[in-house]
Amino acid sequence: MAATVNGEGIPLAEWDGQVTEYIKAHAALGKPVTEEDAGTAVLEDMVAEMLLAQAARAAGYELTPAALQARIDALAREVGGEARLKDWQTSHGYTEETF
């Protein structure tokens, strides 16, 4: 585990993959970062996301498959279609499952 937040783990492989993508994205923008800085930034973001998810669950929020699909469909429309969204996912290292 990369970290544990209120008893819930952040898998090391997931953190490592996101660190790699973070470094690539910053390099593509001409703003290279060290692996240490990338690791810290990614871990802080992942912890924040987990805390938000935990708070949402505690408040009774549940993401249904239909609501998730509606959000993905809306994103596809915003970026110019499903093909462009898939291209973005691929270029940023996402699979359908990780996205």
Key terms:
mainly alpha; two-stranded antiparallel ribbon; 4 helices; 2 strands
**Gap between N and C termini, in Å?**
20 Å
Tally of individual helices: 4
Question: What class would the helix/strand composition place it in?
Answer: mainly alpha
Average pLDDT: 93
Topology overview:
Layout: E1 3-5, E2 8-10, H1 12-28, H2 35-58, H3 65-79, H4 82-91
Antiparallel strand pairs: 1-2
Can you give a write-up of this model?
The protein is mostly helical and 99 residues long. Helices cover 67% and strands 6% of the residues. The protein is built from four helices and two strands. It has helices spanning 12-28, 35-58, 65-79, 82-91, and strands at residues 3-5, 8-10. The protein has a two-stranded antiparallel sheet with strand order 1-2. α1 (12-28) packs across α2 and α3 (65-79) crosses α4. 4% of the residues are buried. The model has no long low-confidence stretch (mean pLDDT 93).
